[in-house]
Backbone:
């Protein structure tokens, strides 16, 4: 439904996006992640037909058509990062304007206002709305056409709790209806909760594209189990390392202990942990406490960004 092929966009000498190839299928939700200035908004604007590629292609729909064509725009709904509406209009009037523009049925106005939790404020003027309510009004407008393609730029940035609930409902509803959803976010919790795949942009380049299953595996690899032990017999660490090579005593990155330390740290996936516990029990060591932390998306994200920036710096030095 959404397809980028070697998409590149430059603004003068400034490279915004470089050689991006990415697909979003029908019924799929893809989160586009990256630090500020990484090209996320440029990527969405290209799919919305608001900017043209410097090179490469961006196509939408089935059959596919260039994003810049009017036919492609008719099948998408785009929510920009910042929305604004005339202060003098009521929420209902704003929705009605866009409903008529998109030629949606009359009953759609009340449906989207209700879904965005604005049905009680529809007759108030936009000038009396809070920032969160304005953002919810933007969500309501984006929902009007029931388009097969959704492009949402930082949709949760200014949302209040009611707006977050509406956004989660919008994405789940779109997935169930077989629509393609591409959204950007700095809220990694929202991305992890909603997305089927995750694409990470750094400096305009795609540095990682992970399915939810692949992400789960990557996060599992970054998990840590901590064991508080009653004693520290000779040879325990060596035996544990045959199962979990990265195991170490707390307080020393070399795996050594001061003699007082009896906390064993076992980095790695959860699949290693039963074997480690078997080793500890076989040596007759009592476990006084156990905690296990799974890897976090924000930690993995920072690693990917740091690796990419380090690689880019190396290219600059070599050139």
Residues:
């Amino acid at each position: 439904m959404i397809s980028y092929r070697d998409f590149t966009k430059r603004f003068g000498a400034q490279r915004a996006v470089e050689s991006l190839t990415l697909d979003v299928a029908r019924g799929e939700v893809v989160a586009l992640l990256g630090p500020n200035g990484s090209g996320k908004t440029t990527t969405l604007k290209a799919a919305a037909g608001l900017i043209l590629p410097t090179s490469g292609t961006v196509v939408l729909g089935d059959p596919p058509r260039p994003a810049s064509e009017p036919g492609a725009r008719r099948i998408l709904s785009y929510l920009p990062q910042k929305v604004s509406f005339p202060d003098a209009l009521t929420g209902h009037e704003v929705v009605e304007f866009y409903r008529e523009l998109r030629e949606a049925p009359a009953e759609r106005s009340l449906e989207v206002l209700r879904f965005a939790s604005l049905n009680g404020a529809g007759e108030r003027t936009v000038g009396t709305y809070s920032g969160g309510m304005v953002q919810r009004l933007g969500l309501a407008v984006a929902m009007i056409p029931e388009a097969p393609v959704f492009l949402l730029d930082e949709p949760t940035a200014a949302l209040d709790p009611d707006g977050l609930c509406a956004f989660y409902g919008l994405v789940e509803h779109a997935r169930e209806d077989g629509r393609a959803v591409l959204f950007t976010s700095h809220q990694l919790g929202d991305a992890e909760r909603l997305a089927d795949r995750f694409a990470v942009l750094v400096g305009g380049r795609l540095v990682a594209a992970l399915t939810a299953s692949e992400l789960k595996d990557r996060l599992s690899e970054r998990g840590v189990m901590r064991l508080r032990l009653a004693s520290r017999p000779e040879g325990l660490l060596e035996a544990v390392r045959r199962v979990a090579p990265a195991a170490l005593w707390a307080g020393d990155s070399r795996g050594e202990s001061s003699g007082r330390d009896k906390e064993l740290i076992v980095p790695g996936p959860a699949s290693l942990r039963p074997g480690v516990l078997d080793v500890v029990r076989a040596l007759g060591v009592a476990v006084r406490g156990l905690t296990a932390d799974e890897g976090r998306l924000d930690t993995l994200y920072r690693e990917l960004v740091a690796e990419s920036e380090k690689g880019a710096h190396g290219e600059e030095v070599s050139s």
User: Anything to note?
Assistant: Residues 103 and 145 are 8 Å apart (CA to CA).
